[in-house]
Amino acid sequence: MTRLKTEAAKESLLRRMRKQRLKYVTVLPSLITILNGVCGFIAIILAGRSAFAMAGYMILLAMIADILDGRLARMSKSTSSFGGQLDSLCDIISFGVAPAFLVIEVLQKRELAGLVNLNVTLAHFFQQFIWLAAAAYISCAAIRLARFNVENEEDESAHMSFIGLPTPAAAGVVVSLIIFHQEIILPELSAGNNPAYLDFCESAIIYSLPFLLLWVSILMVSRIRYPHILNQYIRGKKPFAHLIRVLLFLLFVIWSRQAALVLIFCGFAAGSFLKWFYYRVIRKRESILPVLGRISEFESEE
């Protein structure tokens, strides 16, 4: 009798596993999502070979693939839990591990050697701080993606804003500065053009990278609302002046893509943060001060 119950339980378990087995997937969005992860993997390899600018461009290519896969899935009405999970797994490679590893490689190859010659203790502390910032960045990126999977709605109308800085934008902040450093500042310094402002810019970028990792890590897991650029500012009918602004911005991108990348990503990350800081801290404090003033006057009259 016990044997029959055991066999029946096994058959029931097998039937449930067959029902949960994935039978159909959307091919084109899934291939583009996998391309996202492959680009992130190639970026890690290039960073290990000191091709830092190319590694940054591979992460940017992964961002384009990340935009296209979700757009195609929603346009074809083929969004699924499989696609969402696959997208997050690829995102953690391209926008989590790859940028953190890129920062570590840039700092180790560029700056730690000079610090060792100056002070071994300082170099050891700075190296530990870099690893701590990179670990915090990867952890917050994973938390951000997991939270997005839980709270995300598949309806296109729900994709007008994000809660917390999106992982591609966080990676873009770091990557854009590294590309600017590698393609604008270093060639000028190598050519012998080393005015004081170039040395200052290089030191500012290099030493700010670990702090930027920590800053965007906090923004990713925050509840600050960030706009969806494509849905809010590009799609649909817009005023004519909006078209002029977009054209001027495209001319700026053509003139200097490296500076444009820094402006795009750093401006996007800082814009919503400054807006939140103004309304939550400054305006709130200004509204409280008159109340406190009236309370103090009332107490003095007593």
Keywords:
mainly alpha; 83% helix; globular; two-stranded antiparallel ribbon; 302 residues
Description of the molecule:
The chain is built from eleven helices and two strands. The chain has helices at residues 2-20, 27-48, 52-75, 81-110, 112-118, 120-151, 167-190, 196-221, 229-234, 240-255, 257-301; strands at residues 161-163, 225-227. The longest helix is centred in the C-terminal third of the chain and has 45 residues, at 257-301. Mean pLDDT is 80; it is low at 295-301. It has one domain (27-301). Helix 6 (120-151) packs across helix 8 (196-221) and helix 7 (167-190) packs across helix 11 (257-301). By secondary structure, the protein is mostly helical.
Summarize the structure.
With 302 residues, this protein is mainly α.
